[in-house]
Amino acid sequence: MAALVIPHGGPMARNYGGFDWFSQFFASRGYTVIEPNFRGSSGYGFEFEMASIQKWGGAMQDDLADAAKWLTKNYPVDKNKVCILGASYGGYAAMMAAVKQQDAFRCAASFAGVSDLEYIVRKAKRFTNYKVVKKQIGDDSDMLEQKSPVNFAKEINIPLLLIHGDKDRVVDVYHSREMFEELEDLGKVVEYIELENGNHYLEIEKNRLKTLNAFDKFLTQHLN
Q1: Strand order of the sheet with strand 190-195?
Q2: Predicted model pTM
Q3: I need a surface site. Which of 50, 81, 175, 178 has the fewest CB within 10 A?
Q4: Which of 128, 121, 125, 119 is CA-nearest to residue 149?
Q5: What's the average model confidence in pLDDT over 58-62?
Q6: Which residues, at least 6 apart from 94, have a Cβ–Cβ distance to it below 8 Å?
């Protein structure tokens, strides 16, 4: 059986029980789905949530590989058929998993994911939330470079799907464009889809359907 690890966005947010159209789509295709509330998620106390502050790509990332390993240990899931897929911060986590957790994941897919933390902080200097962004992500250039998937494209050796709206005002389309260019130049297995007039929330129906169909095709190709 194939499975998906779907980290939520935020990262200072959380997954709740109940219906979710995104995860339900994949469950309807026969995938076992786990949506872990990794370290840094809200709802588990102040200390737990603060574990996301300037810790992108660290222990909160390790929690996702642990979720995959837990699935394969406790459910009839083939350890060679687990993919990580997410949006926004979840997209960042998927790309970072492709860099450092290839033993846990067969493939990775990102919608509107962050690939360059330095770019996030640099761009924030023009806006009133700069202090908040700097506190959450950090401003040490070396650290930001080490936590940015775009700088480690050479190390990615699993298939990667990138999808991004060209009008995204939350995570600039730059992130997926740059990631794709780096991977393509290196001859990696990567696909990039840019959604016309697409925003961060897939509010246009045809873009939502295009995204889900692209994910479905990608997973069928690499997990079945």
Answers
A1: 32-34, 3-5, 82-87, 107-111, 160-165, 190-195
A2: 0.95
A3: 50
A4: 119
A5: 93
A6: 7, 84, 85, 86, 108, 109, 110, 113, 160
